[in-house]
Input
Amino acid sequence: MTGWIVVVPVKPAARGKSRLDVPGVVRTELVRAIALDTIAAAHACALVEQVVVVSDDGDLVLAALDIPGLRFVPETEPRGLNAAVSSGFAGFEGRPRAALLGDLPALRADDLEAALTAAGAVDRGVVADAEGAGSTLVTASAGLEWASAFGEGSFARHVSLGCTPLAVPDASTLRRDVDTAAQLRAAAELGLGPRTRQVIGSAFDV
Output
């Protein structure tokens, strides 16, 4: 099968994750590190042919230059997460596509590979977050019009769009997104990516 095109939309760190407050840690640096670890894990996935990062965070783009082969699409004005994802897929309509949220600091490439393998058997797929209400990954097979409905309570909306819930284990790192310090601690129990570990240091025991 043709490799997957994975779009990772990333808000500028200054605007992202306002609830992620870890004492002694600069939030913008943490948010950027989480996104970079997510992007690196996607790039390392054997089924992924191209990772497209949609963002207007110039510091993130510079920091990501050590991850080879990324494609960057500037988001010149904030139009919302779903519009950002759609812009990243321009030119890839005939390929299998996946939108991956950029807040998965514990993501492992093999967990993403397992989900994309399952997604290859359905027209549209979705992975629920750890709480079951949100979505961390949405997929569409080659040739289908892209559709996504990220935002609060997105899992049910994605199912209503025709996405098949993918059988991803509860303990999968793909389900552990992070909006709060408590969720970051839960992700740390799965093993954080190197950039996130470096930023949080000894802020809490990981």
About this structure: The beta strands are 4-9, 48-54, 71-73, 97-100, 124-128, 135-140, 164-165.
